[in-house]
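## retry 2 of 3
previous attempt timed out at serialization; input unchanged, resubmitting
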Amino acid sequence: MLAGSCFLAPWVLSASAALAPAARAAPASPAAPPLELQVTPDRQFAVYQPPGWQVRSTGGAGERHLTAQAPGAHALVRVSLGPMAASERDAVQAAVATLLRRSLPGLRVTSARASADRRRSVVDFEFAAADRTPMRARQYVLLDSTGLRIYAYEAEAARFAALQPALVSVLANVTPLDAQRFPVPANPVQRGTHVPARYDLQPRRLPDGTATLHLPASWQLSGAKGRALAASRDGGAGFAFSTAEFWGASNLPHFDASRLPGVMHLRYSTPLEGLLALMKQVGSRDFAVLERAPDAARAAAASAEVRRRVDAEHVLIEYTNAQGLRCKGYFEVMAFTPLPSGQWSILYFGVWAPHAEFERHLPGLAAVASSYRVDERWAADHVARGIENLRRQVARTSQMMADSARAAREALTAAFEERARSSDYIDFRRTQVIRGEQEWVSAAEGGALYRSDHWGLSREGQTVIEGQPYNVYNHEGRNPRTGEQMTPVDASREVYERVHGRR
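## retry succeeded, writing output
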């Protein structure tokens, strides 16, 4: 299955947002060199790398290691995957232990940061190479349910800034493979093999400019505010990072969530059940769950961030899409427990391809997923406004957590924008019921706004008449000044938007 570094890019984005002292826009970096696919002979990793790089991998006893080195021996990428030792259940301790084991001459740590739960750390350090060349390096450590993951890149200090884009690009395009699901083909992939024609990737940007990724030219892309949905014309292969909203039973008095129109009604369920309910809405059917595993570490980290219980799962499923194609997909899904109103949501990240060809598509799908980037200027502004920053992601990947359902609707299709307007109107009507208020608009008085509540009737915020005949239970909209029959503001969405404006 897909695992590990295809989600490195969103995780690095989320780590930067969580660990940096302040969000700020980064200067534009030079374009990364063109990459070509190489699968290591032991079938442990697939790597997209610049031409001429040397790749070595080793493995055993549950551990896997990869080194990708640029010509010249002073620029390389390292990836290590394995179980956690008892002394390494803290990302900071694991980072220190890793550096000490390497015994680097002249080692000097210049910067070290960790997430609040100490499950992620980023360390910048300097050392001297064997030929005494001054070197700079950055190392990421991630602890989760899969074990210990270490990602690092290093280069000679004098050229570090110039080589960094290429190093990061290679690091983000390393994908661990399952040898049983990715067996050695009859004609092994030779070094220098390019991405298949269908994955001749080209840079694309969301219409609102909030995220970029590399996609085949024939794929269709939609989304907004960092959420993306990209797929081939027949829907048989694709990538998605977005959210979806559901409504279950409400705990609020005098409010029945089951009567809300135009929304998905579903009691709070597992992340997988939320994903399947969403897929049914777009025409998928005949689901079969091949693999399913909880992700307790990710759920705990998300719960701490949003102060709300979160459940997380990895799933591998088969299904028939709306066009009748049998597909297989890998998804990481988180479910955010309901609010008192009964509203709950999922955040999901996934890739899929035709069922019979999923393993053959896997390296290309990993390249698409790992190319996902949120625009840093938009993300910094997002944080500055106090809105929850996107993380995962690849998602963090990374891993953008707990976004609103309205944004999810915008991300999936343009039609969801219309539903967001309806949600504003529904929220207004629900709020009036909860507060015990009713608003009326007077045409005879040029649109003056009247409000009946528990005590009586007011006009433009000033009390007009108090008493039971004019409270919210008895007043039926007769204007006490002109005698006209006023129009309720919640009579329709059009009236509501004329009075309160369209957001």
